Amino acid sequence: MPRLRLAGAQPPLTFIPPARRAWVRWLVRLLLPLLLRGQGVGRVQADGVAELAGCFRAQQQGRVRLFLAFRHPSTRDPLVLAWLFWCAVPRLARRLGRPLRPPVHAQFLYDRGIPLWAGALVGWVLCSLGGVPIQRGKLDRQALRMARELAVDGPFPLAIAPEGATNGHGELISPLEPGLAQLAFWACEDLAAAGRPERVVIVPIGLRYPLLRPSWPRIERLLAPLERRLGLAPPPPGPPRPRKDRETDQEALAEHRYGRLLAVAEVMLRELEGFYRQAHGLHFTGGAPFAERMAQLRDRVLELAESRFALRSQGTLQERCRRIEQAGWERIYRADLDALSPVGRGLADWTAAEASLCLDHMRLVEPFTAMSGRYVVDRPTPDRYAELLLILWRAVAWIEGRPQLRPPSLGPTQAVLQVGPAIDVTDRHGAYRQDRRAAVDSLTGAVRTALQDILERGLR
Questions:
Q1: What angle do CA 223, 229, 235 make, to 5 degrees?
Q2: How many CB atoms lie within 10 A of CB 80?
Q3: Which partner for 252 in 35, 49, 239, 426 could form a disulfide, CB atoms 3.0-4.6 Å apart?
């Protein structure tokens, strides 16, 4: 949850055209093992690399135009995907006796906000690797035009995260945005208009981060300080003993751990409800189940931000967050600053400060958009428990004004990459010509189903 610290209104955001620099890619590849370890990734496992290498080869031979649709559970994803494209794919291609023409690379779309909160250096690196920045809350014509050109004439495949943003859940897919499907159909149209024979395909790539050595004691060491920061009394050390059998004992221990996690979430929710009730006059229904109360909090806080920006409350939670973000940016990053009087400039700074605060409200509840109340109960593994706990931990750090504070380590993770069967978009182009919206929705649904199948297959 990044937080921008602004002195006032800023000059308008400009488009950052991709400017690939081979030496930057070489340097990042050289540092990749260190960068992965620095992000807590102790091992990378990839399945389906041979099929992906075949798709890269088909693109290099001019037989297909390739889109890579990857899951986006974490900010570590770009590094892991870089390892897949730069290391695993060319290595396996050589081993199979069908080497690929270097460099093996993929260009990509990224959120225009990343250079704002991650820093200009990160933005420059993304630009130097061929990334295309896009403002997600509006029709960013310049970015879409560039992405459309790369999809048809670019030297590399185009990688896109159809979820649009991270959700912190390795085993839960957020609703997909339609941009990937629309770009794929545009590529079909442009190829047909040019009389070119390439087919357009989408390759889904699953990605998750299970703990290499799950440790309940480490998880509990993360939970204990979080309980203290929320004013919770120290819990008893464990479930009553003795138990009749080991299985019953394990069930009781799991119930005890979940009870502690639920207590933290309940207190966090109660604190937020109290704050918004007192500070902003929002009303919440008491006595409802946790999941309903969390959904109500998300909705009320987003409505608060939308009302400040005169936005309508419609669409999915992700779509609403994107519109709020864009409305805030339009009030912070302005093209008319030079034409303002000193008083007008002062008022513009006030407007920017108020917009930043509205964005803070949205950023606070945005990580909770994927929380359903059933994630841990349905599958009470250390991984799911840790994911939910880290979301809560970061939310507390955000409220305390320490968004860059890193949580205690839970140990190294394993990045698990799984490549699914390619989806042929060209076969769907006829349906797109007849009903564009229905075809885009259908293709988006097919990509989601493919990602869900990959996830379920990996969890068996």
A1: 50
A2: 23
A3: 239
State the Cα–Cα distance between residues 224 and 236, nearest whole angstrom.
12
**CA 288, 294, 297: angle at the middle one, nearest 5?**
100
Please classify residue 345 by burial: count the beta carbons closer than 10 Å to its beta carbon, then call 0-12 exposed, 13-18 middle and 19+ buried: middle
**Residues in CB range of 441: below 8 A, 6 or more apart:** 178, 181
pLDDT over 70 (residue 134): yes
Work out the end-to-end distance of the chain between its first and last CA atoms, rounded to an integer number of angstroms: 32
Q: Please say if the pLDDT value at position 246 is more than 70.
A: no
Q: How far apart are CA 369 and CA 302, in angstroms?
A: 11
Strand 107-111 with 131-134, pairing: parallel
User: Side-chain half-sphere of 414: how many Cα atoms within 13 Å?
Assistant: 11
Tens-place pLDDT, residues 148-194: 999 999 999 999 999 988 888 899 998 999 999 999 999 999 999 99
pLDDT in tens, 84-126: 999 999 999 999 999 999 999 999 999 998 998 888 899 999 9
The H-or-E segment that residue 193 falls in is helix 179-193
Q: How confident is the model at residue 233 (pLDDT cuts 50, 70, 90)?
A: confident
Contacts 24+ apart (CB under 8 A), 14-19: 15/133, 15/142, 15/143, 16/112, 16/115, 16/123, 16/127, 16/133, 17/127, 17/146, 18/107, 18/127, 18/130, 18/131, 18/132, 18/146, 19/127, 19/128
How do 64-70 and 199-208 pair as beta strands?
parallel
Question: Could you give phi then psi for residue 423, rounded to 5 degrees?
Answer: -105, 120
Strands 199-208 and 423-424: antiparallel
Record the tokens describing residue 240, joined without a space: 């009553």
Q: In a 3-state reduction of DSSP, which class is residue 417?
A: strand
Cis-peptide into 289, omega within 30 deg: no
Q: In this structure, are strands 107-111 and 158-160 parallel, antiparallel, or unpaired?
A: parallel
Residue bearing tokens 């991709």: 18
The residue type at 359: L
Question: Is residue 147 within 8 Å of 141, Cβ to Cβ?
Answer: no
Residue-level pLDDT at 239: 55
Type of residue numbered 238: G
Provide the pLDDT confidence category of residue 371 given band limits of 50, 70 and 90.
low
Rg (CA), the chain: 24
Which helix (H) or strand (E) is 301 found in, with range? helix 290-308
The model carries a pTM of 0.91
Contacts of 216 (CB under 8 A, 6+ apart): 257, 382
